[in-house]
Amino acid sequence: MSYLTIVNSVLEVIILLLIALFVGVLIPGIERKYVHARIQQRIGPPVTSSGLWASIKFLYKENIKPNSPVPGLYKAMPILCFIVVFLVFIALLPLSYGFLAFASLIAIVGFLKVEEIAYVLMGSLSKSVMSAGLRFPDHVKGAERVNTLTSYIEDISSNRSLRMIAFGSFPLYLALFIPAAMCGSIFLGDIVSYQQVHGPFLFSLAGVLGTIVFFIGLMIMLNEYPFNIVKAKADVIEGPYMEFASKYRTFVYVTRGFMIFTLSCLYSVLFLGVAPGLLSLGFIVCIIVALIFVLFMGVFSAFSPVFTNRQFYPVVLVSSVIGVVGVILGLLI
Amino acid sequence: MEEKKAKTQEIIETEIQMGTVHPAALEPYRVRFFVEDEIVKDAEVTIGVNHRGIERIMEGLPVEKANILTEKVCGICSNAHVWNSVRTAELGLGVEIPERALYIRVIMGELERLHSHFLYLAHGCEVLGHETFSMRIFYMRETIMDLLHMVGGNRVQYGCSIIGGVRPRCDLNEAKLAKLSESLDLVEKNLTEFADRFTRDTMVISRITGVGIIPQEQALKLAVSGPTLRATGVKRDLRTDMFEYDNFDFDIITQPDGDVKSNLLMRVLESFEAINILRQAIKNIPEGKVADRFWEMVDTDIIKSYIEVPRGTLYHSYAIEDGRVRGSIIRTPSMANIGAMQYASIGSHITDAQLCIVQCDPCFTCSDRVMEVYDYESHKQLDKSMLGSKILY
Amino acid sequence: MSLKTHSRSKAIHVMLVYTGGCNGCDIEIVNTILSPKFDAEQYSVFLTWNPREADILVVTGPVTKQNRKPLEDIYNAIPNPKLVVAAGACACMGGVYKNIHGDIPSEEIDGPVENVIPVDAKVPGCAVRPQDVLSGVVAALPHLLGAD
Description:
Chain A has helices at about 5-40, 50-60, 70-90, 105-125, 135-140, 155-170, 170-185, 190-200, 205-220, 245-270, 280-300, 310-330, and one strand spanning about 150. Chain A is mainly alpha-helical.
């Protein structure tokens, strides 16, 4: 590989990353203003407010030390999440299809697992003032707590994310392997080229099932509204993110939008066979897919309450069954 | 159904504390959930951070001033407090109240019931995580707030009642009555649409059915009051005993189950009933003056008055000496419902546990009182050493 | 207008702390933020319950002795720059709870809010009108925008 190619590739990645980040920070605003606010019959915030300007604003806040037993590790977590999502994003670009082990479904599943484990760590490391930190008069005066272990509310959210790793991410991973079953390869390059010959997987029965399962898995992965038990406002307030301030909160904000965009790119690579290259229509297709996902996610989240385990397990079970059926259909073709 | 029991403390693993500042609670109070694997095994609601000693401030104030002060007990049912405090004085002094004033008091009381129930529904939906429904109800509630603003002159605290009637500024003319009935039509239409939409939403219904059940015997044992009691199937409403409501024809709504669904539907149905009472009041409101100022101040013994407010039974009592208040006691309905909140949250998931507390319509800012516990048999004040043996779960 | 000032004016996170008022102001404020009629979000004011995210702390109620510590804790948890808006008569001057019989200070109240944490803007009213809260937040904004 010549020197020029490397420079070109790096430039392309940087430009694509900037575009992706820009779309990513606009996504929360689009969801809030054009979907939620419209459904709730109000004007809603400016599109740029809740994503773009909020992220910039937090850069200028005081970098306060988080209430955490290991502040360094806790503060590293959002950066780790960002790097992981960035790696997934690079793996989806056509220029990395040559690196077989990197641009494969196994690698992507691995990266996403890291993201999930980060939630567990963040939850258990955050000790916010809003839970056990708010000392009630009886404790201040020295009341005993008999035979109990006082736990912060973020610990619940950490437990929940652990449970999420065990079962919550099934739908997404099953959906990822439907295209692999259909073309018989786990390498992204093969999947894209197979679809360019045979037409997108979306237009087959297995592909449709895969799309449904992918969408549910996407919402679970992002902790979007009905599945946001990890950060449900009614009990754990903000869950793992409670203690992030200033630029670390910016990372949290940016990573969320970026992750929606990256997972949309993943969808268009796997089910539409469109790779997000710089000088191609593929990137525009990815942006459109992201917007469609955001639209559906917004509608779905505006009309549903938070799911507790009682509703969560059946949803995951049913979508996993659909996913398994999709994989079997894919293998039969 | 079998009785749910709090486990003894030795088995309990983890304690989760929520409050004093928490999005689901809003008011300052603390709830301790003792959980095993996210299932609440025992709950403890502690209040007391809000105590401002309003009865102490009332002590020795002229009766008229003390009456106005009572509306600062609670910002949600402020009218009810003034109403009951004024009613206490009127009962003691034997004041005749003009018929028109009684009607206006009922109109204010029912408007307040509507606004309180809407607030309950909206807050319930918010804790449920359903932002759209809560927005929808808050939007409906604004119509009621406008009406309250029109009649009382303020959005929240409108000292409407005075001894002998209501304030002249709260008098209703033809235009105001027309506006009132017009807005009620709108509210009823919106509420009907909301109720249809709400009961057809399978996701919401599956979330709230069978959560936080309070059985009927348990509710009676805990002396639960108001809509929370009626949601367990007990037909008890103090409005049937109040002379203000003699001329009105209304049903007592009950619901069978005592879970969150019953409680929410209870409020919706009661709102329709409140609209019904308001319609009757607007139709039959008599002419005449709104306040009778010719009453005489005398010293009285302790006077007690109970009325039905949106959250249950409200109790005010004081004696009058030289035109001043002595020994004022206020007992708010949420005080009685705290036991139900703790009971309802046992056995549910933590996310539902907050819902179980909200289903009893808590208003801790008004229920923070100093309490003295007396032994039932010996009428002696209980001290710490006796508490351990006497008070059982 | 620099990027810092502009971004701060475009995304304002408000946190609310009740310190023992009568619920009147509290519900009015939460309503302002929430209800579609006033819809504070259209002025890019967002309600948050996390002190680490907040810019503006709206305090209601006379600070009761028991509530002093939580209020101070939450105030200290908010990263700089931050503003405090005292909303309602109780938060501004103690309201009806401040004194017993005119001049005896009540032993329950530690307030007004000024005695506990520095206050940047005061919104009068019993209960505050939603419009007044919005204008109070807007009046305090220059302090926030100009801060380092």
